[in-house]
Amino acid sequence: MTAAIFILTGAGISAESGIDTFRDAGGLWSRVRLEDVATPEGFARDPDTVHAFYNARRASLSAARPNPAHLALARLEAEFAGRLTLVTQNIDDLHERAGSRDVIHMHGELARSLCARCGDRRAAAGDLSTGLSCAACSRVGGLRPDVVWFGEMPYRMDEIEARLLDADLFVAIGTSGAVYPAAGFVSEARAAGIRTLELNLQPSDGSWLFDETRQGPASTLVPAFVE
Ligand code: BV8
């Protein structure tokens, strides 16, 4: 049985594509309060501000391109057909645009909408706003980005946990290890005796938990890891 690899990516893998990270100097959370734009309470309080935040990120994403790190992971998926799990905390679609086909977006996707009234989830290429009606239930005011906010349960956690425990190698790429439950995956891997590797620009909160850490830009480290 060939080895199974579980990869977790964070905002750092998209940084060289021009996508903002969250906790680096000048990152998103230094410009807006996550309580205002990435919580259900913030959305209930001021939906227009939340829509403007995600509409701006959706616009900058359309101008971005996958970088060599995304492309290398797509090559790895083709080579490890069926034995590679790619879980991303990112809500961008750069893994898919690089050619990855089986991507688990545990924090949702910027390019999709969710109706808070009926639960309908679908592709949403353009801006969202409070004035739009849901294509499924026709009600107005319930549409929100299909992303997982703080205090909400990430998607596909049962599947993620099962695939994590089935892996022989856990690789974290471009994540600060600050947000749970994703930040807990490395500890679960260690407890299960799974080898752990971190590829990051600089040491993260959880670097000490990894068997091996490599520092550098993802566009250099990931192709070198894949080759
Ligand atoms: C939940 C989507 C429960 C929206 C995001 C313990 C257990 C469980 C939960 C908690 C817990 N303790 C606290 C919590 C609550 C909370 C949490 O973790 N809080 C933190 C702040 C302490 N967690 C939650 O609320 C989660 N939900 O637990 O639900 C539950 C249970 C039952 C029923 C219902 C609910 C939900 C968390 C998800 C929140 N949504 N994103 C959006 O994108 O707008 S999280 C947010 O942080 C980001 O979106 C991102 O996804 C995530 C992690 O950030 P990173 O990707 O790591 O990015 P960051 O900027 O931090 O770091 C970038 C890294 O890249 C750096 O290390 C940098 O050095 C590196 N880098 C930079 N450039 C490069 C590079 N690396 C390589 N190359 C480069 N060029």
Automatic annotation (TrEMBL):
Identification of the protein by name: NAD-dependent protein deacylase
Primary role: NAD-dependent lysine deacetylase and desuccinylase that specifically removes acetyl and succinyl groups on target proteins. Modulates the activities of several proteins which are inactive in their acylated form.
Principal subcellular localisation of the protein: cytoplasm
UniProt source species: Jiella sonneratiae
InterPro entries noted in UniProt: DHS-like_NAD/FAD-binding_dom, NAD-dep_sirtuin_deacylases, Sirtuin, Sirtuin_cat_small_dom_sf, Sirtuin_class_III, Ssirtuin_cat_dom
Notes on the domains: 2 residues (Tyr-54 and Arg-57) present in a large hydrophobic pocket are probably involved in substrate specificity. They are important for desuccinylation activity, but dispensable for deacetylation activity.
Residues annotated as catalytic: H107
Cofactor descriptive note: Binds 1 zinc ion per subunit.
Reactions accelerated catalytically: N(6)-succinyl-L-lysyl-[protein] + NAD(+) + H2O = 2''-O-succinyl-ADP-D-ribose + nicotinamide + L-lysyl-[protein]; N(6)-acetyl-L-lysyl-[protein] + NAD(+) + H2O = 2''-O-acetyl-ADP-D-ribose + nicotinamide + L-lysyl-[protein]
SUPFAM superfamilies from the UniProt entry: DHS-like NAD/FAD-binding domain
Gene name of this polypeptide: cobB
Binding-site residues, NAD(+): 10-29, 89-92, 174-176, 200-202, 218
